[in-house]
Amino acid sequence: MTKKKRIPKGEWGYFKSEKKRRMIITAVLFAVPLFIFFTSWIYFKTRMTIWTVVAVVGCLPACKSAVSLIMILKCRPLDETLYKKIREHQDRLDMAYEMYMTFYEKSAYIDAVAVCGNTVAAYSSDPKINAAFMEENAQKIIRKNGYKATVKIFTDLRPFLERLDSMNAHKESLEEGIKFTPDEKYPDLSRNELIRQTILAICL
Prior knowledge:
Elements lengths: L13 H31 L5 H24 L6 H8 L6 E9 L4 E10 L2 E5 L7 H14 L5 E5 L2 H13 L1 H5 L15 H11 L3
Parallel strand pairs: 3-4
Antiparallel strand pairs: 1-2, 2-3
């Protein structure tokens, strides 16, 4: 029986996979200090031991993991039908799916994002998204990392798919003349892939 591989961030199915992973990690992190606490209580017949302190301190990583779990549980998986529809228009573009983009002031669900040259196009089905705010702040982060890209977030699917088709049709011209020095930390990644990674870094 082959071990099921973990789905990386930015791939379809990430939220579903990550929810299961974080549930298991959180359960284990709570189980260890609780086991220490109750075992020492039964053995010493009192809670007033150093092992109680160890158990309490041991709950801190578990609490941190629980917060992470709660955050990921709020994220809904990308509908398979919608994913396949967008995927049909991906072609040669570097894309990421299923993201929950977060900033201090606001956060929003991003279904998909495509990167080509200095153009970043995203689609969000989140009815509460402040697209202008998310565009501006995502663009700031990308530019601070040295990539002069413009971010556009679509809230209607059809214009987004049309933009993907246009980006594919003009891919060479969109990337033409852009100077790029590979990142020493990630020498195998292209400029488009590095921008994609920058976007993923600001997502859950």
